[in-house]
Every structure is written in structure tokens, then in C-alpha cells.
Amino acid sequence: MAKFSKISVRAQTRAYISAAASGSFLSSYLLYAGHDILAFVCVVLSILCYPFLAFSDRVVFDGKRLTRTGLVWQIWMLATGQRRKLKPRALVHVETEALRAFRRGSNVTYLYRTSLYGDDVSFRFGSGRGYRDMVKAVFPLIPEGCLDVRSLELRDHFTDASAALMMAKALNIPGSDVLDTGAIFSKHERRFLPKVSPGEDEIKRSDELRSLANQLRANGRLPQALEAFRRALRLTPNNGGLLFEFGRCMQSLAAARGDDRLDRRSLAMLRLAELRSGGDMHLLSRLGETYFSIGAWRRAEKVFKKAIDSGAKGYRTFRGLGELALRDGKIAHAINYFAQSAEVAKPSSVSRWARSETEYLRRLNDDEEYMELELGRINLFDTFDGARRTGLKVFVFGAALLIGGLVSGIVLLTEIGWAVAGVALIISLASAVLKQTFASRIPFELIDKE
Description:
The chain is α+β, with helices and mostly antiparallel strands. It has helices at 15-33, 36-55, 71-80, 131-138, 149-157, 161-170, 181-190, 200-218, 222-235, 240-257, 260-275, 281-293, 297-309, 315-327, 331-344, 348-366, 368-408, 411-437, 444-449; strands spanning 7-10, 58-61, 66-68, 85-86, 93-104, 107-117, 122-126. It is globular.
């Protein structure tokens, strides 16, 4: 058996940037105050040490377990006694977000950020060298119920962009620069549904175009992806999964363009996919999550309940209903849904997480003292998060005063700038630390002992 080559990707964290910025500001102040040696030491640490720590902090997969190489992270995990390695099957949730970094015409360059959550440890990494390899190696090993919709799409379709473009050329899909998206939609709307079922050759051709369309979409080639989806739908227009993916692609293009009309079209396509789902549990679950992500709460609830009524009782379906119930403040309903999700969840790590959520919600519902403490913790968390954000804004304002004073030679303005920026930075850093202190839930045992 061939030896597995380790895959690594740089970990995503803002702590290093914050530390480097704080160190640079401190060194500037020391230089202004006349402490040249201390300023030099501080700027060397900021410019050299912090970037070194940041770029050496990587998430690594050795074929069996995930770990993180960051020196600060390793020391913290040792100090707190937490485990430093995690098997993919021990993950309970994976969430991926897509950020539009650049746009060239209708094509988009996406930056992906992925968060992997275990019971007591999490890893975060983003697009860059090794990201595609990490996705292809790790995502198939994670239980499907733990992956959100975008993570599932990347697992199945995130291929090399050049390979997707070569396949598009082989299937005679025109380039993005010559495609008119308006014409694509008008052609699709003029097409009447065939009365006969598609043959095997048509189904095979449709699947080939569908796979290509998803690959193009994952790589930001949206017009070509839409054209491939349109051609696939001409062959198999009653395929609910294909309609769902077409609607998701339309959503991506609508978001890139800021086109409300196209966004409404994408919602109509999702509704059509819902009508032609045929009771497919996985499709209905993905539809429900998509509706949830865009704020169509009532539609999401109807789709999740439709999946349950069809007899397809899946973990993500019950979990989606539980999260919707929590949003509406219906704790008793949420407890029931999370309890049912724990019964059908696989593997055991996901089932344990669902049971712990159920117990947490039940404790909130039954114990007024615990609820008051949790509400206080959440309020403090939000307060410190708000203080951190406000501190950063005030810091920018103080830095502007400082620069203005230095340029104009007004000493008083410079001193005020140093004071405002320094105090704001201290408040922001302190708030960030205190925010993390109140990020974790209060253990039940603490209340029981009292």
C-alpha cells in the first residue's frame, strides 16, 4: 500500500494580524517617545516573529488524523489539557463560506473558508496552497450529515479549474466572454417539457453536463456553468436535483451582480426543484438549508416537514427544524427535534453532540437559575464583542488624528491621537480576550455544586 503524503494548508486566524498590528503601534510609540532600542526590538518581533508564527501555523492531515502545527496553539492545548488531533469521523459539523475576491465580467474568483468542529476542538483554514487537496482528502471521510450544502458541493465538484475548462471545450460549451446570460434564461424558458421519459443516452449526456456545470460553478465560471445546466435540463427537465443545482448557480450569479430579478428567478427555480423532488430526503434537506441560509424561514420549515412526512427522517432534517424552533423561541419544540436528531444521527460522535444539545436546551427550559446565568453570559459576550468593534473604529479615528498631527506639526493633535489610539487599542484587545472567556457555555456541574 502506497504511503500517504501529508497534506497541509495554512490555518486561518486573526490573532497574528492583531498581534502584529499592536506590536507595530507600540514600536511606533516607543520610537516617538525616544526609546529607540525598545522600539527596534518591538518592531523586529512584529515584522519577523509574528509572520513566522502565522505562516508556520498549518492544519495538517496525515491520512488518519487532523492536527495543527502552530506553536502558540500547541502550547495552549497542552496547558488546557485538550486533545490536539482529531479523526475526520469525529467531526460534528463542517461549514464552508465563499467570499467573492475578484470579479472579471461574470466570472468570479472565490476564496473559500472552512471551519471543522469537533466536540472540544476546531480547525479553520481557507483557500490557498493545499486547500483543494485537503478538501478532496478529508471531506469524503466526514459523515455526510455533518457537511453543510457548500461543503458537500466542494466535496463532489471542486476540481482543478483548467481541467474543468478543458472538459467544457470538449463538450462545446462557449467561453464566458461570448455567452449572454439573458439569452441563456430566455432559451430555457422557451423550452417545453417533453412528454416522454428521456432515454439512457440522454440521461448519460445530462449527467455529464451536470457534473461539468457544478465544476465550473465551484471555480467561479458562472456563465459557462449556467449554459451547461441549461443543456442538461433540456435532456432531463424533471430532475429535481439538477433544478436545485441550477437554482444555486443562479443565486451565485445574482449575488455577484447584485441582481434582484435574477435572485427571484433563482427562488422560483428552487421552488420548482421542491415540486419535482419526488420525496428525496437528501434533496429536501439541502433545499431546507438553502432556504434557511437566505432567510426564507417559513419555506425552510415547510420543506423540512415535507421531508419528514415523506418518511425520510434524517439527522439534518430534524436539526434544521430544531434551529428554526430556537429562532422562534420555541425551546420545547427545539428539544423534541434535537432529541429526534440524536436518535437517527450517525456516527456516535454526531449522536453525542445532538444529545448534548438536547440536554443543554432541556436544562435551559427547566432551570430558571441556569437560564439566567446563560443569558447573562451571552449578554456579556455580545457586550465585549461590541466593545471590541467600537474600539477598532475609535483606534482608526485616533490613528487619523495622529497622522494628521505628525503631518501638520501640531503637537497637541499628535498627543491626542496617541492617547485616543492607544486607549482604544487596549480596550479592543482586552475586550477580545474577555469575549473568549465568555464564549463557552456554563457547565451544568458548576450549578449543581452550588
